[in-house]
Amino acid sequence: MELLYENAPLSALPFVGSVLPSARPQVEGMWKIGSTIYVVSGAALSLLALWPEVLEPIQRVVFTTDPPEAFGRMARLDLAVAGALTAGSGMMIRRTLVAPVSRAGVARGLLEGLLTWYVLDTALSIVLGAPWNALGNTAFLALTFPSLLSMARQGATPSQTKAVQAH
Q1: How far is Cα of residue 8 from the mean position of the Cα atoms in its chain?
Q2: For residues 128 and 76, is the Cβ–Cβ distance under 8 A?
Q3: Residue 126 and residue 90: Cα distance in Å, rounded?
Q4: Which of 23, 38, 100, 104 could crosslink 155 through cysteines, CB 3.0-4.6 Å?
C-alpha cells in the first residue's frame, strides 16, 4: 500500500511543513478543531432549516434594516444545502488532512464526506419539497461513488483505476 508523503504527519506537508517545528502540533490540532467545527456547524445549519420559527428571530438580528418576509421554502432549502456542503467538506478535511493516510484512506475520507453531504442534502431536500435537488444529488453520487469505492477497497490511485477500466 503506497502512502502519501511516506507516512509523514500533517506537519510534513508542504503547506504546513514550513511552520516552526515547535508549532506543528498546534497546527495539526487547529486542523482537527476546525474540521470538527465545520462538520458540527454544517449539520446544525442544515437541520435549522427545518424550524422556521427558530430562523425568524435570527433573521431579525442578521438583517438590521427591514427584514425580508419570513424564511420561505427556497431560503430554507438554500440553508439546508449550504449546511450539508459545509458538513461534507468538514468531514473530507477531517478524514484526509488530519492524519497521514494511504490513498485508500483518502478515498475513504472522500467517501465519508460525500455521504455526509448526500444524506443531509438529499433528506432535507425531500422534506423541504425539492425532490429535483434530491435527483441531482443522486445522479452526482452515482457518478462519483463507484470509483471512490473501488479506490477505497483496492488502495488504487485514480490513474491506476482508469488504466484498469481501459483494459
Answers
A1: 23
A2: yes
A3: 23
A4: 104
Is 60 within 8 Å of 107 (Cβ atoms)? no
E strands, the chain, are: none
**Residue 72: C-alpha distances to residues 46, 51, 66, 109, 128 (Å):** 15, 11, 16, 34, 10
Counting Cα atoms < 13 Å in the Cβ hemisphere of 134 gives 12
Q: What is the DSSP letter of 64?
A: -
Return d(Cα 94, Cα 105) in angstroms, integer: 12
pTM: 0.66
How far apart CA 132 and CA 152 sit, in angstroms, is 30
**pLDDT score at 109:** 85
Identify whether the C-beta of residue 157 lies closer than 8 Å to the C-beta of residue 103.
Answer: yes
Mean pLDDT, contiguous 10-residue spans, the chain (167 residues): 45 46 65 88 89 76 61 80 91 75 80 93 91 92 88 64 46
β-bridge mates for residue 27, sequence order: none
Residue that is written with C-alpha cell 470509483 in the block: 147
